[in-house]
Specification:
Layout (H helix, E strand, L loop, with lengths): L1 H11 L4 H26 E3 L6 E3 L18 H12 L2 H18 L9 H9 L2 H12 L8 E5 L11 E5 H13 L10 E5 L5 E4 L2 H8 L3 H8 L9 E5 L3 H5 L3
Antiparallel strand pairs: 1-2, 3-4, 5-6, 5-7
Helix pairs in contact: 1-2, 4-5, 8-9
The structure holds zinc ion (ZN).
Zinc ion (ZN) binds next to α3.
Length: 248
Amino acid sequence: MLISFIYLYCLTDGRSIGTAYTQGVGSLFYLEYYLITWVMKKEKKCSKCDKIKGLSEFYKHRTKSNGVYSQCKVCQEKAKKAYYRTKKGLFVLIYHNQISSSVQRNHPRPNYTMLELREFGLSTPKFLVLYKKWVESGYDKELTPSFDRKDDYKPYTLDNLQVMIWGENDKKGSDDRRNGINNKMNKAVVGEYISTGKKESYHSMTEAERQTSVDHRYISKCCSGESESAGGYYWKLKNNINDRFKTR
Ligand SMILES: [Zn+2]
């Protein structure tokens, strides 16, 4: 508005205000209107923190005004974090992790719903104890209660679930892999000792390294075809063994 009046004052310059108005201000109001709507399209006030932020500071949402959520990304992330710390939200997180883990490992999805998982979890005394400890720790990530499968080779079913904390879960995973209980993440390899032609299979490259003292990185290079042999062995991935060894 202010610039409109300044502009109007300059325009009068001996002429009547009426003339100046018709000549200049009409179009100036339009310009202001255009500028304001342009700025509004680029910026938005967050409904939570009340800060005016650029549209890129908001997550996109097709059907909302301006095509973004009413809360900014920072506020949404904060809310999400707080939700996942509630008992209700934690089970949403656990359930989604179980689904993505099933998909990743080509396993069937959990045969229970998220609500069934929550009901099961909330009636597990150990879960309640671990949840309380987690809250008391100030939500230490390592102490986040989680549900893992007792037997990693079986899919997610309620009777194959055990409650543990994330730190334990990670450790169990790597212990199981090292001990060959869980080979899902490992690539089983076969080493053919060149001088004798004797073949031996190992559940992982690191296990092969432990048994033969050949560096697992060299074993990997052989498996990918980068090198011919390592440590006096030909190395092949076990699941490729049929097509790879017969070429020799
Ligand atoms: Zn905000």
